[in-house]
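Table S2 (continued). Query chain:
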Amino acid sequence: MEDLETHKARRIEQMVAKWLRRSRDNSARGRASVSDRSSDGSRQPPSHVKLTVDVQKDVLHGHYGIEVSRNFRLLITSVAAGSTADGKLLPGDRILAINDDATEDLTGEQAAALLRESQGTLQFTVLRCTSGGPKSSFLTAEKRARLKTNPVKVRFAEEVVVNGHNQGSSLLCMPNVLKVYLENGQTKAFKFEANTTVKDIVLTLKEKLSIQSIEHFALVLEEQYNVLKMYLLHDDELIGRVVQRKESHNYRCLFRVCFIPRDPLHLLQEDPVAFEYLYLQSCSDVLQERFAVEMKCSVALRLAALHIQERIITCAQPQKISLKYIEKDWGIENFISPTLLRNMRGKDI
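Corresponding output:
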């Protein structure tokens, strides 16, 4: 008889796979009914758009806030939350040119060196896939339109810039502006007043992210240099008092699923948005090795496989992709934890 951990892992696999299939099917139906059918009724391939954006180097931290794949065919593998690139570039964007210079012959190491050595503003021309996979449940155009008619108590700031650049990873962006980190890589800034409570911000996020099962969520403080230390904030705490603690500059504020549902399958059925958030949080926790007991290699690898499958669908890639392709273009470290990579050979993975 399989042990309890293996049984739970398989159950989670089944739930995430069901979520992926439903997201993929819904996306496919939506595209077919709107734009993915030509006049003769045939399916059209996923569309791509070319974008050109300017990204300023963060003078405080000395980076542009992006990481790129290590070899040719440069892909952006991650965008730092709160960086100058946040909201302009996305993971999966393919870099075609930097400052009008084509990157087709540039390796990932050369690109990384260019980013380190450059100063000021760089212009990135990227190719972005605009269809072909499950869309994020966070802040769609429909949700934005709906929220315009449903004002909330806490004022909401998309980005706060001081002296021409974004602020670093801290509890406050500036006086009376709290920075909150989401599990999808976004950061949100909240202007708070003397009577603003933790619950006010949680309820604002409920509206902004269209979450129904808000009882599972809370705000927590995380030590910036020790991800294993978190402190749960009570709903009635005043934000002003939280940020006035003398050690507050050593923390950042996270919006997390803190009260795990008894049955995740029920959460998937009742609130797919909350389930997606829990899934993203789980992937992030495994990559950061933020768990109390040692995780079995087989469980971590199965979660990595699901994470890779979701990325493949989102980026409209062929369904069969080799591990070598993932290592070169996306970086295997974005799916498998550092300890596992150190202790397993590539062929074993």
